[in-house]
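Structure tokens please, single chain.
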Amino acid sequence: MNCNKDLNALLIFPTLQNITWDLTVQTSYGLIINASKDGISNIRLTADDSKAITSSEPNSSSNATKPSYRYYIWPDYQTSFVWYVPDWAGNPEGTDNVEEDELERRYSEQWCAARQTWVDKYKRSFEVQECQLGSGKSPIPDLKERAAWLLEGMLLASWLTLQPDVDAVSYEPALCAGKFWLKKEDLHNVIARFLQVIQEMKV
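Here you go.
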């Protein structure tokens, strides 16, 4: 199943209590999730999903003693939505927002394109709701559209978490309750908790 065509399965299937189901979702940028009635069983990357880290990057194998990056993903109009976690030794000093050209240099073209599409969806809805003019409206008022957008962001954050130069990612989407701290060893539990939060939105 290509989640770019149909994210609804990951949102709807966990609510089905009386039937047995099994689901595999693969994104256009190489993230694969296996889920069933018993929960998230596996999250992995396809073999060719990841752009190699070059020696010009501060966390490459030539400088293996440096910690990996820590990011947080938070929607802020006219930014990349990707930020450096403050005061983390693996992150560059004196900057907070991660510029788009930095992301393109470090990560795959497919993931960067999907992230940009996700950002653009928010931006268009933000402008339609006149949030940039101080309307006070929700940037994505329709609950089903909001849930799909939130899930797209979680999958993007999960792929980023699994990259070899990343230590952790905090997903802070603002349009649902909670922040989600993603580490490689605990991704399945965090995604399961996130899906529960989405279900509680009554989409």
